[in-house]
Every structure is written in C-alpha cells, then in structure tokens.
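Q: Focus on the chain.
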Amino acid sequence: MLRRLALTLIVIVVLAVAVAFLIPLDSLRGPIETAASSALGRQVQISGHLRLAVFPELGISLKDVSIANAAGAHEPQMIAVGKAVMGADLSSLLSGHLRITKVVLKEPAIHLELAGNGVGNWQIGQAAAAENASSSVSLSVDQVRVENGEVSFLDARTGKSETLSAVSVTLTEPFESGESRPLGIEGSATYRGAPVQFSTKLEDALGFLQAKPCNATVKVNSAKFTAAFTGRLAPSGEATGDVAFTAPSLRQLAAWVGQPLPPGNGFGAITVQASLSATSSALALHNAKIALDGMSVGGDVSVDILHSTVKAELNSIAAYGGTGRATVSLDAGGVVPSIQETLDMRGVQIGPFLQQVMGVAKLQATGTAHLEVSARGLTENEIIRSLNGRGSVTLSNGAITGVDLGAVAKLLQSTARALGGALGGGSRTDFSSLSSSFTIRNGVVQTSDLQMSSSTINMTGAGSVDLASQQVNFHIVPKAQLGVAGVNLVDIGIPFYVRGTIDNPSFDPDPAGIAKGVVGAAAGTATGVANTVGDTATKVLSVPGGAIKSLFGN
C-alpha cells in the first residue's frame, strides 16, 4: 500500500510540474484522480483545491483527498485527508530518480478493517506487489508526517471496534524503492483519553510492502502500560517472537480498556514475559512468566480472538510462600460469558493471602487448598449466583488472633468473669489443624465437616454461606480436650449457632446440644447440670460471640 501511494505521488508531482504554469491546477483534478486510482487500485477523489509552491522547493498541496475502501467494507472511505502537502527535488529527476522530500498528511481519518474472511483492507495483492517491485521507477521518500489524525479499527468478524485520536506519526528513516533497508516509524496517539507513544522498526521495508514477513521491533508506552515485541511481523497481522509487558495496576488497566474487574483488593502491578505467536484470529503465549501481586505464574495462554475464548494452563504458581497449578477457561463468545477453573495450592501462608485479597488479618496458618468451580453471567451478582463446584482446605500450625478459645472452654466452671483473658488483641488460639471440604451450588457454599484441633479445644461444625446475600448459617460444637488443667467437665462444650450476615453475625447457644453433651459425661444428672450450663452459656455467648465475629475481620 505504501509503495502504491509513493507511485501515486510521482504521477501527481510530474503532472503538476509539466503544466503548472500553462494550465490551472484545478483542471488537472480529473487526470490526477484517474492516474492515482489506477496506481492504487482504489478510487481516489480530490474534492478541494490544488495549490503549487516553487520555493523553497517544488511542492503541491491538495485539500479533501479521499481513497475508497475495499469492496464490502463498513466505511465508504479507507482514508480521508483534510490537507496533503508534498515536496520534491526536481534536480534528482536528471539522474532518473524522483526524490520526495516530504509528505505531510494533516487531519487524516484512516479506517482500518478486518473483513469477515480475516483479510485487512490495507493489504495489497501479491500480483500487484510483484508488479510494483519490477517497476523501473526509482523513488525515495525523505520524510513522512501524519498530523492530528484519527485511526479506527473494526473487526467485521466480531463487530468490535477501537479508535485512536490525535494521531501523529513520523518516518524516522528514509524510504528507498528497490532496496531492502530498514524503515523506522515513531508516533503518538490518544486512546480512551490517555496519551500513548509508539515506535516500530522494520528491517526490510520493501519486503514488508510486498506482503512478506520481516524482522521487526515494536514498542508501546503509556502511563497505563508498556509493551515491547521483537520478532517476525507480517502485514497480515501474523507475528512470532518475544513479548514483554508491564503495568502498574492490572485493575486500572482493565477499567481503561473497558473491561472492569469486580470490586475488591488485588490485581495490582503485573509483568509478563513470553514467546508470542499470533494471527489475525488467534494469539498464544508460550512459556509465559507472569508476576502479579507478589505471585509468580508460569504456563501457556491461548486466546481465540474470533470466538472470544481464553484458555490458560498454569503449571507453575508461586504465591504467598506456597506453590501450585491451575487451569482456567473463559468463554466470552456467547450471549452469557462463562468461566471454569481448577486450582491446587499447597504450603500457602493464609495470613498474607487473606490480608491482600479480603483485608482480613485474624488468621495465621499454612494451608493446602483444592478448588473446582464454574460460573456464568453478565454481572458480578449473576456470576456469584451461578457459581457451582467443590473444594477443600486444610490449615496447619496456625493461630486465630483476638480470641483464646482454650480459655473460653473453661467457662463451664469459671463463669463469664474469666473472659477477660480470653478476648482482646493480645489473645490468640493456636491450633494444629483446621480443615473443611465443601460444595458450591448456585452460589451457596455448604460444608458438613468443619474441624479444628488445638492443645486445649476441638471444634466441629456444619453449615452454609450464601455468597450472594452474604448470609451465614452454622452450627458449631466446641469440646475441651481431656486433661486440661482447671477444667472439670472436660467432655462438655457449649454448642452454638452462627446466623445472620458475614458482616454482622449473631451467636446463640444450643441448649439441646449442651444437654446432650452433659448426658454423655454425667449420666443420671443431665437435667440439673444442663440448666446450669445453659444459663451460663446464655449470659456469656454474647461476649465470645463478638470474638468469633472478629475472626471474620470485624
């Protein structure tokens, strides 16, 4: 395309020089349009005036110039230029060479489009490229500038479009026809309100214009991200090579490009290094190394642009002191997007993880987790309500801060007065294990085997959490360990319910559960003991209830 544009410039300049002082330039409009249309294979129209300049160099300016788009394209014009200015060195014609000193396109509107068959409207046919390559015309272009332009891109296969405004481009290295030499381009643009700078270097500009791939480097920089590519690049959009990408905030980047992430913490600074292979319809990252929020991830990622699907095989995850692997499949091509994910992690430091993701700093432990989930929806609420799957978690050698459940276990003989040392910032419950398996159905997490073990107390529990409404409904049964000093009714705990919302749960004793425990420990005297313990439990559960609530970060 660029070579054909250069040949068009020759026709315009030569015709203008030959008759500039004999015939009014406007009378040349028809011949210039005809010659340019023939050279480009697209209809060229000049709607504005033509002007000739002879000092300091020969030049011609044209207003309102347009080049028709490919057949069937969405926009009628591929390029529309408010004003085009061209300069030429006439002395070079004596040696059979035309030297274009400058080409300036002011306020152009450029409409790039991928047709339904994946062919770009900027591509020229192989036959035309070969014909131009064999031309006897010798041409060089010293300088090309695009000033304050607008570039739009439409993928007709998906209907998605993007627009760059305030586009400025400069040719940093001269172009020579018939020679395989580098071509450099630098420029800037505005995308979604933010300035972006870019640069490209093609090692074989002539081959690239003839639709051949060549070695290339591409760099893009903005306040939102930086990206660099080194490898092989073709006009069709095919690319193979190495890519590097960094962004100070993935969350802000996603919002900038119109794909905001759900509210919450995380998704901060990210870096990516990978081998890239791409076509106009697919992209793949091989041996990718990704760092995000202190995590390190390695694996392969493939993107089907045409069908809007993403698949990731992450075989190496290092996060919060642990390691693991995951697979993720995202399908955004249907009416309702869907996602499937599996995750296996081991040796994870739960405290830093919960602090980063949920803002909770009450639990310190080393954990192992397994998760298999699927969901679909257009909004965050729809995704949560459609969540289905299963998982398990096991924590070891940890502590719950803000409450000493071992001290709480002594309530059966010490009354509520002893709670002073059981609660508060300096209190903690050390445990050797905390585990649970769970299922998820329509956004409701259900477990029946919650277990915690420590040197002073064991706890079991069952219940559910509705992730959409944030409602919790659990039944917890604590049980003091045998042989704990100062605890007489060692086999009796105070069962209680946890109900309400995650942010504001309520804690109520279970007298029936208390009586059942007493029967097991003191057969024949259960009624009297149960009444005593029940009364004590009713009085004191509001206090340890607050401590248990604090476990959830409140």
Observations:
- The two ends are 64 Å apart (CA to CA).
- DSSP finds twelve helices and 28 strands in the chain.
- The CA atoms of residues 371 and 391 lie 4 Å apart.
- The first strand starts at residue 44 and ends at 46.
